[in-house]
Amino acid sequence: MSFFPCCPSQKRLRKKTLKKNIKEYHENKIKTSFSNISFKTDSGKRKFITDEIAKLGKGNITSKYIPYRELCVATENFHPANLIGEGGFGRVYKGHLKSLNQVVAVKQLDRNGYQGNREFFVEVLILSLLHHPNLVNLIGYCAEGEHRILVYEYMVNGSLEDHLLDLHEEAKPLDWHTRMKIAEGAAKGLEYLHDEANPPVIYRDFKASNILLDEHFNPKLSDFGLAKLGPTGDKTHVSTRVMGTYGYCAPEYASTGQLTTKSDVYSFGVVFLEMITGRRVIDYSRSEEEQNLVIWAQPLLKDRRKFIQMADPLLKDKYPLKSLYQALAVAAMCLQEEADTRPLINDVVTAIDFLARKKVEVDQPHHTKHISYNKDDEDNNNNENEDEDDNDDNEDEDEDEKENIKKSHIINSSEY
């Protein structure tokens, strides 16, 4: 499914370029040439890496090479006051590039971290060859001496983790509609990687800290160092060593190293469940039976009457109950133990797109109640039909849930 029209010839060229360039990178002759980097001088390394990226990109690399000295100036010598993030890959600093007059995020890769030369090259290639509103924009890179630095567009609102799991006391929690909007955009980013790229790109590191938010809380996926090309032809999976973050990895990938696009769907289900519940996937501060989010949620997902117990308390019951049911149903499908029973990401996008639009459909009836005008008989009949539909939908709910529905000032939609 494509949301971004372009002429067929351009799409074929982009797919062919991605497939050929990244595949070439993974071939032995390319890997062998990288092994010679350690024997070169600093200036030789820089020229070698820049030439390799240009060659592999076939002239399609949109990011630019940025000298290390310029990045030192931009970040005030990587001053701790400009530090905005830190992880296994290294540290991220906020900076200002004078040459572009642009605020940027500068990711300084840890020499001892999990991202080495191969991961560095893959991230530069993927973010230079693939472009989508829900993928972070790579502005440039630096490879001087032992330095491996990636420069991204600066995302004003940080990561989803900041607003969902590391929320400060004075900060305002994300409302239900914003959460669904973020989930929709993140799913579209995965859809682009799975369905538009050829061969498909498996993200392999989908988690809340890798979903960045702009000033309007539009999400963009970041950190592609662990991304892998998906299976092609009659292959059902690609085999690779297990990497990623504990709790987010699909069970079949964690146990066998067999990776498919459905592995990303599982990871999406975990993050979506975090967004609904406000809980971390692994939280050792909780009681033993609640430390693993997925294990805690499994019995609750089997009993619809307990769905309300799973909603984030910070939402303060300000969400459409029916949308909560639907969102949890989507999460449950993504978290199926067997990969084959999980939905494709484009089906997930369709479902969450409906949930993201649900706010308009739900709130509109309340708005019209305050407008003073004479309705004709047809309008009255429509309202009566909506009430009847609501009653039909709620017949299988117990009395406690009915009472919750009556108290809610949000739920008035007849759709389920």
From TrEMBL:
EC supergroup of this enzyme: transferase
A UniProt-annotated Pfam family: Pkinase
Stretches for region Disordered: 366-416
Any single GO CC term annotated in Swiss-Prot or TrEMBL for this entry: plasma membrane
Binding site for ATP: 107
Main location: membrane
Subcellular location: Cell membrane
Catalysed reactions, as listed in the record: L-seryl-[protein] + ATP = O-phospho-L-seryl-[protein] + ADP + H(+); L-threonyl-[protein] + ATP = O-phospho-L-threonyl-[protein] + ADP + H(+)
Keywords: ATP-binding, Cell membrane, Kinase, Lipoprotein, Membrane, Nucleotide-binding, Palmitate, Serine/threonine-protein kinase, Transferase
EC number(s) from the headed UniProt entry: 2.7.11.1
Membrane topology: Lipid-anchor
Homology family: Belongs to the protein kinase superfamily. Ser/Thr protein kinase family.
The protein, known as: non-specific serine/threonine protein kinase
UniProt organism field: Sphenostylis stenocarpa
